[in-house]
Backbone:
């Protein structure tokens, strides 16, 4: 069973709990509901399917399926999490080093998937995300937003990014290209 850390689930759970209309109920399984009503520990592991269902509920209701909104959430979460308990991983003027290390850091949040970072130029990388969930594009948009914001926190400016390949369109992996200036 694929799992995610509570640190990336907790904000989705807070949003669902704050809603008193019941709009999210139809997106959640009985197992999801039991998790959502319980205590979410940032360091504990939770089922990926619960994360996906919570994320999808908020994505469909609040973002109205807007993938750019998921990307903005990635930027928000990237800053919130990486400037908190993981702030020691961010080094000023070293976005390339952060991205290279993110291959390992991703394992702090997901117990599945693999990231490969290919340095194409001193200020340009290709990031390949493999073995995640090709049926859930918002996950990749949140990842891209995360990397955009965290390289910015490392001092990068004029960040440009693009999807090179998309697994949900049949590619073997999802690949992002990110360029920046220092």
Residues:
């Amino acid at each position: 069973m694929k799992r995610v850390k509570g640190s990336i689930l907790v904000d989705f759970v807070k949003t669902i709990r704050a809603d008193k209309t019941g709009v999210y109920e139809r997106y959640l399984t009985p197992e999801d509901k039991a998790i959502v009503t319980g205590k979410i520990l940032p360091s504990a592991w939770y089922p990926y399917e619960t994360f996906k269902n919570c994320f999808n509920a908020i994505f469909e209701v609040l973002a109205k399926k807007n993938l750019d909104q998921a990307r903005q959430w990635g930027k928000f979460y990237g800053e919130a999490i990486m400037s908190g308990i993981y702030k020691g991983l961010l080094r000023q003027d070293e976005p390339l080093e952060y991205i290279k290390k993110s291959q390992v850091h991703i394992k702090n949040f997901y117990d599945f998937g693999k990231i490969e970072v290919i340095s194409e130029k001193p200020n340009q990388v290709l990031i390949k995300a493999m073995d995640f969930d090709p049926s859930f594009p918002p996950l990749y948009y949140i990842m891209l937003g995360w990397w955009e914001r965290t390289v910015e926190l490392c001092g990068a400016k004029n960040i440009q990014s693009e999807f090179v390949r998309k697994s949900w369109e049949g590619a073997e992996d999802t690949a992002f290209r990110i360029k920046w200036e220092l």
